[in-house]
Amino acid sequence: MPHFITTHERSSVTVSTGITYDRQSIEKWLFSSQNQTCPVTKQQLTHDDNHLIILTPNHTLRRLIQAWCTINTSHGVDRIPTPKLPTTKTLIEKHLKDASDSLDSPHLLIQSLKNLKTIASESETNRRCIESAGAVEFLASIVTKNNTSSLSSCSTTEFQIEATIIDDDDVEGFAFDFRVDAEDEATNILYNLHLTEQGLKTLLNFKNGEFLDSLLRLMQKGNYDSRTYSVFLLKSMSKVAAPSKLANLKTEFFIELVQLLKDQIPKKASKATLQTLIQLVESGRNRVKAIESRCVNVLIELLLDCKERKPCEMILVLLEMLCQCADGRYELLSHGCGLAIVSKKIMTVSTLANDRAVRILLSVSRFSATHFVVQEMLRIGIVAKLCLVLEVDSGNKAKDKAREILKLHAKSWKNSHCISSNLLASYPKSG
């Protein structure tokens, strides 16, 4: 929850209820958390003509704080600089017009986009103002320009990208030196605007899906940063898209997403790729496309080297979804390490990982349990691991599924010498 202004904040604002907050905290409360009320009074806050919540700079409080800082300079207190005022819709519209007038001049266009990115980086209020001024449609139109347009010549312009990526659970900044064109810069800005649900839907529906096709093209063309921002945008868009929209994605999207996983681009981009695939394969049609794109094989290879909890969990979640299809189970069983690595992650990662790994083994046991597979599960220690699951604190869901697997093939496994006597004692009774 936002807090009152302290001597360390640089900007204080007053909301319509008369309560003063530091700007950064109240903006996080209002925009990132999608709240519309005053945190203290719980009253609805006043909006302006652009549907933005009114935050009025509290100059009196700022001057008092600055005066206190000046008096206490000898104690090591630095004077707080006067903050920049929030931008206005009129100013943003002027920037967009300047950018639009520069479409035939690559250097001027990219400079205009850089200016827009700077404004967006200053505050959440600025980002919402940029979105309300129609920047989403303008930036989308730049991204959807094909390679034969005049914008393609922008690829000769070189400058440093300085972007801050904000994901679900943390913040990470990075900078790259690359040749970039207007498409790359526009994609960068679109992601870092942290668009509202309506803004994301605008992208999804832009020119009957042309923006999605352009994202695919950016993912294919190999530029490091454009591929990264494209997958971040696709992840955000997939969260708000109608199921029918996602079900119609081209197979090439899955090919590129799987390739991104193979390439192991920045860790946060790999994480976003996994999250995107999990959202997309909710549709049965997309599961087939992902499997055809060799997703199962790549996931197994990643799991072999994965040491971190969250990536392991996401890989197992995605594998479990794909193994609901016969082709997915076939790919898992065809990989020499498929069954073994899934079993290995049980009781070594988390309760969630236990559940998903045992789910995968249950799918195999129910629908793909040939004599060879049943004996292989015994030979590589999966049966012993399942018996161990019943004895330790591995989560109730995992225990129930492990018990079901063991009952399914009790005739083949129960009297085996491959299971130690102490584990056999916990073997569930059949029937």
From TrEMBL:
The keyword Repeat does not apply. Gene3D superfamilies: Leucine-rich Repeat Variant, Zinc/RING finger domain, C3HC4 (zinc finger). It catalyses: S-ubiquitinyl-[E2 ubiquitin-conjugating enzyme]-L-cysteine + [acceptor protein]-L-lysine = [E2 ubiquitin-conjugating enzyme]-L-cysteine + N(6)-ubiquitinyl-[acceptor protein]-L-lysine. It is an enzyme of class 2 (transferase). InterPro entries: ARM-like, ARM-type_fold, ARM_PUB, PUB22/23/24-like, Ubox_domain, Znf_RING/FYVE/PHD. GO terms for biological process: protein ubiquitination. Residues 1-75 form the U-box domain. SMART domains: Ubox. Functions as an E3 ubiquitin ligase. This is U-box domain-containing protein. It comes from Trifolium subterraneum (Subterranean clover).
